[in-house]
């Protein structure tokens, strides 16, 4: 990316709380990432307790294993991922957006099978996180398939990162969290992407995605970055986003319902 493109990207990210990044996985690299991804989904690469259902509050149908498959820490489970181009490219983008001290905090895969039709609940990522003195964080959401409104592209509420965290509550089965929001919220914006493209969002930006109602799959790979000092701060308190702990609840005191 040129200096001007990076400057424009950083400005949009700062103003809106999200920004499309463009291509981070080339057409020639997509097959490699999809192969690794599908090996996780099939169980050929074992995920153990790092695999869960982000849509477990909705009854499963048609014998599917998960409504929304979430696999935390794929790069820890399969270290060769760290040496492929995406991690290097995403780190460079993160440092442009939140500062030169950014490092990878965690990564994850979120997958939507055809016709599962279960939305990812509205939430702000920071509600999952412990309180931190430095709020800088960016998630880089990478589409490994074309992502549109009907199969589950991301939706964001423009400017919501500048507002206080909304109250969050556990989903009906107590395994994830959600907050009140809708597509009718002022500033709510769908962000379709082509396979290989990415969108970056702040940890405080409201977001969700519709369920997949199409015949195709929707594979997404997400990489989260924050300042190295804040990663040390988290780890000192035992917070590692599922690497050794298993916490999927409201942890930020600003997001606790009264």
Give the oligomeric state of the chains in this entry, treating copies of one chain as homo and distinct chains as hetero. Answer: single chain
CATH-defined fold name: Jelly Rolls
Discrete helix count: 5
Structural class: alpha+beta
Estimate the mean pLDDT confidence.
93
Biggest β-sheet strands, sense, barrel = 7 strands, antiparallel
Instruction: Output the CATH homologous superfamily.
Output: q2cbj1_9rhob like domain
**Distance separating the two termini:** 45 Å
CATH architectural type: Sandwich
Radius of gyration, CA atoms, in whole angstroms: 17 Å
- The top-level CATH class is Mainly Beta
Helix content percent band = 10-25%
Number of strands: 13
Order of helices and strands: HEHEEHHEEEEEEEEEEH
**β-sheet strand percentage:** 25-35%
Gross geometry: globular
Output the strand order for the largest sheet. 1-11-6-13-4-3-2
What number of structural domains do the residues give?
A: 1
